[in-house]
Amino acid sequence: MKRLSVLLSLLILASLALAACGPAATQAPGGSTSGYECTDPLGCVKIGPSDPVHIAFWGVLSGADSTLGEDSKRGVEIAIDDKGGKLFGHDILLTSEDAGCTPEGGATAASKLATDTSIVGLVGSTCSDETAGGIAAITKAGLTTISPANTRPSLTSPDRGPDYDGYLRTAHSDAFQGKAVAEFAYNFLGVRKAATIHDGSVYAQALQQVFVDNFKELGGEIVAQEAVAKDATDMKPVLTTIAAKGPEFLYYPVFVAAGGFITAQVRDVPGMENVKLAGSDGIFSPDFLKSAGPNVVGVYLSSPDFSAFTGDYAGFLEKHKAKYGGSTLSTFHAHAYDAANILFAALEKVAVQEADGTIYVPRKALRDAVYATKDFAGITGNLSCSPTGDCGAPVIAVYQVQSDDPASWNPADAANPNPKKVWP
Amino acid sequence: MRTSISERALDAIVSGVLWGFRILIVLAIVIGTVLAIRAGTYTRAQWIDFVIFGVAQGSIYALIALGYTMVYGILRMINFAHGDIFMTGAFGAYFTATWLTKIGFTDRYPVLGLMIPILVAMIIATLIAMLVERIAYRPLRGAPRLVPLISAIGASFFLEYSFRGIFGPGKYAYPPISALEGEWVVLGIGILKVHVVVMVAAGIMMALLYTLVMYTKVGKAMRAVSENQDTAALMGIDVNKTIVSTFAIGAAMAGAAGVLFSLVYRQIDWFMGFTPGIKAFTAAVLGGIGNIPGAMVGGLVLGVFESVGPSLFLEGLGIIRPYQLKDVIAYTMLVMILLFRPSGILGERLTKQKA
User: Fold this and answer.
1) Nearest CA distance, B307 vs chain A (angstrom)
2) A20 pLDDT higher than 70
């Protein structure tokens, strides 16, 4: 009993102490030691003379789709290295939080990061589902996040609501990607009957719907729109159902796990032997070759057009190779690199540094500076952010897989690309 | 204890609602089935395909379910790390099979090329399961029931994340055996060769296991320990040894299941044990946990329902994208079976001490 009361009083003391220093970290103390007065409506982040500049990455870092997040995180880490690990003479500290590629995971990660008052800005999330779950907490905390990998169209639509004020992205919206695939299938491949499979994720569901709408508009017929569970492994029943409808083209814009299972099993199903297969950027990775096996040769994949990358993408790949060894894991490392750099550029614009090294970052000004990004020379193109948060340069290409050897993965290779760009 | 009238009325209402629920689900299934068959979307061959896909998937569930059921039978504990034991087996087989394919061994001797990875997988899975038992379960043998359960979940995470750390978060494509590509025609029905192999291999394994448990000394010891540990010990049975062999045999089955799974679905990763593990546990409960033939029946029933169900009764009811609801079918079926037969399909009523 006695121990309990001691514990309780300690807890109360601790919470009092926390409550006391909470605002001090966010609101600059006007007067006495500092000449800076925080007038920002969202408050300021104060970084003491010996404290690091704290940024955060949130995205999927565990589970079956963790390469997607790992790949983006590496982009951010390389951007930090390019700054020499320092901003205004302070070290840059990167915290990463796993969001598990689910809305609940996104909400958990975001609310955890939102309570950390030392964070100035974020890069993330990677799955659109995570953003749907977590963005409210981040916006409410006055923070701004730039996603390198969310492609769900509604995240940057004009009616996205005030919860999304703190949200921008360098990834392209799938409104462009689904349309590109539909045009490719109808005009280039000349198919008229298509089927789609999604895995219930917001990303896949929205993307296949954009494809379906555009394909119908072009005059094609959608014979089946099926869905599987995200962790499904036995795809043969659903593929048999689709085979009964006789499609010429199967579009499955899912993630690596489901994409691999579908590709590996599709040719075993009677009626599906010659159907043309296409996926999207969610499976645009050597990991997909690894998981799909020999059937993967000939699969079409849509992705940002790497040949349209204006900046020094080759230089980025070299740094990546030197730091992590091997090729990149997924699609959005370059977008993550650009996202981090946009954040740094905005920080450099708005942060105020005192003589003793203390930095103040006004949150609203930072957010406005990110939105004001114009003609930013990133490696994915010249980026300008729209008022609804779209910063990406949406040039989509369709690639075709040439070999099932993951080691040969290099879409940017001049002589022997795998996958090879086939359209436009 | 006397029950008041209001309590009895409440009981009557509850059981009425439950019966209504049962009847509703059965009706939905029957109506959906009739409608789907009358719609005639699928040919006879496609229906047969659905069933065969289900049996193949189900025999893998059954093999994993055996491990759950045996350990439960003997220790009354749910070994949640069992799904990950299945994963370790698949990894062992993957590296062996890749190497054998690379040196051209698999193409020359396809049967050995199939058997050797299965053997390696069984050995690796067994060793890891014995280690888990020694480290995570044995020290907690006398503890309350929840304690080994939590320890099992911990062991599961430990295995998953160790494999993620060692082999990376990526996926690996299991090398296909070229001799197993294509179909065999059995009784006028084309069946994928790989499915035939899976069904036959699973059948042999289960037959062996059944013989082992029913007709050998080790099996007799297992049954004795599962009846009553103390009495078995008094009869001169080494309880620890018997428990270890139970874990080992269950793990060997899971390891073999890992190879069969990889052969059919051709993709492995560090997290692959989770969903099949849960499904196999469902299968074990479905068949009556603690009961070995029950696990086999439960696995097959679950596999076939999952495969046939979406196109049979969900599509008939006009539900769009029925395959998303595959798991719903699995778990609804679990609830249904438990409502009708609380002890599972083949489960006997457990004695008070066992339950």
Assistant:
1) 6
2) no
